[in-house]
Amino acid sequence: MNICPRIEVDSNKLRHNTEIIVGLCKKNNIQSAAVTKVFCGIPEIAEAIVQGGVNMLADSRIDNLKKLAHLKIPKLLLRLPMQSRIAEVVKYADISLNSEIATIEKISKEAVRQNKVHNIILMIDLGDLREGVWESDAVGTAGEILKLDGINLMGIGTNLTCYGGVIPSKENLGLLSEVATRIEKEFEIKLEIISGGNSSSIYLLQREEMPEKINHLRPGEAIVLGTESAYGEIIKDTYQDVFTFVGEIIELKEKQSIPIGKIGVDAFGNKPTFVDRGVRKRAIIAVGRQDVQVEHLKPIDENMMILGASSDHCIIDITDADKDYAVGDEIRFGVDYGALLQLMTSEYIHKVTK
Questions:
Q1: 37 annotated active-site
Q2: Which of 26, 27, 37, 116 does the annotation list as catalytic?
Q3: Where in the numbering of this chain does the Alanine racemase N-terminal domain appear (predicted)?
Q4: Which of 11, 54, 102, 219 is most buried, with most CB under 10 Å away?
């Protein structure tokens, strides 16, 4: 019997998804930086993505980039660098996204010390209100960066959707293209990268609406789940079941639907509500909110229903399930991006690559 709870990764499907996204990008003269943070930079999983043909790997955490150091492909640090870890940034990342001159100055000094040239992508805030300088400050900031030793202003980029939910469009990415043109004209340089966002920008490729100057994207969800993240639509010819969560039944009993006694708050300070469906067959699987928000799991058997969870237990109504389950049996689930991120981060969930 396989160990539970676990996440199963189908490396063939992952490689296929990568090839589809890379092909879509190449068709539009766009480089792809595959985001590895959702699976915590596990090398075996990243290797399947590299085999799919991406141009670089990208992660928010230096600790994950360290795991990938053996892969001979450029590494991009997605999260703005912490000044306390500049030495590691220069050592393990070939490129980093930046918006703070004070930090870039420290990177410059460290790059010179390590006898390296570190590549910078200057982030521009186009309204999502996460990282980036305002477009009105972009030319001035670029000028300051260009004065620094050990630094190459490789390009500019933006992030959309992740915080403010702003959808990428011809208009806002068109503005990013305009900013790039201003910088190039002002300093008589050619920016290598104009990075137009993450998986939420994929739909523009599908609709052939991507501004021509955008030549770089940072897809994560599009590769691992086969969906674009602006509208949640499935990307043609991709798999949505690259990752499957598997839990083991540790109790199976018929019980009524409503607890007995006065209802207070649960272990997380919430007052639960219940629907009276009569006596139902309920399975408990060994996973809980310490590992994942169970609402983001979807039983493969659509006749099952997740009722709720505590820290360590998830309760599922299996009365109408397609098969007759017993204690010790496994139940399989699809995952969304949030569930996948939590499950891969939990040290209590086993990771199995097939």
A1: yes
A2: 37
A3: 9-224
A4: 219
Positive or negative, the CA dihedral 166, 61, 80, 55 is negative
Q: Which residues contact 257 (CB under 8 A, 6 or more apart)?
A: 274, 275, 276, 277, 278, 279, 280
- pTM metric for this prediction: 0.94
Query: Does residue 158 have a pLDDT over 90?
Result: yes
Name the pLDDT band for 259 (thresholds 50, 70, 90): confident
Distance CA 126, CA 100 (A): 16
- Contact at 8 Å (CB) between 275 and 309? no
Q: Which domains does the chain have, with CATH numbers?
A: 11-224 (3.20.20.10), 243-353 (2.40.37.10)
CA pair distance 215, 210, nearest whole angstrom: 9
Q: How many CB atoms lie within 10 A of CB 222?
A: 30
- The pLDDT score that the predictor gives to residue 92 is 98
Q: How far is CA 123 from the centre of its chain?
A: 18
Q: Which residues pair with 146 in a beta bridge?
A: none
